[in-house]
Amino acid sequence: MIRPRDRRRVTRRAPAGLPDAGLLGRRPTAAIVGGGIAGLTAATGLAERGVSVTVFEREDHLGGRVGGWPERLPDGTAVTMSRGFHAFFRQYYNLRALLARTDPRLDRLTPLTDYPLLDAHGRIDTFAGLPRTPPWNAVAFAWRSPTFTRKDLLHLSGREALPLATVSVPEIYHRLDRTDAATFLEAINFPPAAKHLAFEVFSRSFFADPRELSAAELATMFHLYFLGSSEGLVFDVPTEPFPQALWDPLASYLAGRCADLRTGTAVTGLGRTPEGFALEAGGRTEHFDGVVLACDVAGLREIVAASPEIGTEAWRADIGGLRTAPPFLVRRLWLDRPVQPHRSPFLGTGSIPPLDNISLLDRYEGEARRWAARTGGSVVELHAYAASTDDSSGLEKALESRLHEIYPETRDARVIGDITLWREDCPLFGVGDFARRPTVETPDPALALAGDGIRIDLPVALMERAAATGWTAANSLLGHWGLAGHPIRSVPNHGRIRLLNRLAASMPG
Hints:
- This protein has 16 helices and 22 strands.
- By secondary structure, the protein is an alpha+beta fold.
- The strands form 7 sheets. The chain has a 5-stranded parallel sheet with strand order 11-3-2-15-21, covered by helices on one side. A 5-stranded antiparallel sheet has the order 17-18-19-16-20.
- The protein is globular and about 65 Å long.
């Protein structure tokens, strides 16, 4: 087990209340709409306090954008497909707390020790072996980086770059949300040769063009992963496909607490009643005391639009204004020969468009490893984020061409099987959106929101934001019923260098 290292991590204590809903005389009922990380976290938080939970998931599998489903290769081999590589960073305290429910030692995660980034000139930046404590991690990185040099560090505009070292949420959004990420990096004199570092590791993790991403979101990412945490940029990945490693065990855990998990069941509307909510799903109407909407952006907009009785006019307008990031493509190839053994399991390639990264699944995932061992082949995954074309077939060819340039040994490989996904359902953290972004709490105390697109004033992002909002949504309903909540953890919600914090506090704006 890899335990958290950062002694400055922050724990927000669990709200007080009764330990079990059985003490209320009647157990409250809660509907969770969405079976991704946020919804499963909320379901776990409620079920552990004895609430009667029903999870509605429109897809046939759990896990949301970190889910997986069965497919077959042309030769009939059964495989598990997913939306691809996800990094489980050590500072994802709330997500790891969820996974620890069924895997206390987190043995179903395995570490990848590096996050190499390849630029257009063939130079590679690496985060392996760095000291983990800020600011020494940044200094050591600049000392050895071929693209972000010691001279570049000295030439940063100190005043303009100060927000990166003094992040506090929500204050950073008040300061930077109306600036886009690309403009911010230009203002701080971030070296052009190293912009792929900021864009690949941070901006494009949101599947967004840097010119459309809030600079505040970029700064929060810098803080979470690098300048505000001592956990480092190393991360873990599941040892098996997502369903087997993560969600099947959690489904069994929830079933053991009498939760009802309904996949392949879409919720189409929500009505308010004197006692609670009337929920429409699968052609039936069911009644619940509380609801957590943990959908993706499009699903949340659709349900709210079809449910005029819930929320206020202003709140509903904010939901309707949520946007999605540009589309992205995932292409997975089963090849008839191995990739050279010195290749990294993961390689960032965002400065070599349209390819954003290459993953070698057989280096870390059991199912792919077994297939490769049996056939002598390899399983390679290619990602393209913020795609600017609707021509998925042309993009597929471009991605494979880049693969052959970077890993020439794949040029003559025969493709035994291939699966391509084209999706457009990730939230966009656009310039100026923060003030109107809906929070976990809603105008109705019996209704909560959760998901990676929902505002929570903590330094979290991506999967960790989904988990943090899931625990918080559960706490919101539990508090409404007088039940005890769950602790929430994060990296420190302030910069690590006190002198810089004081300097930032003294500056206008």
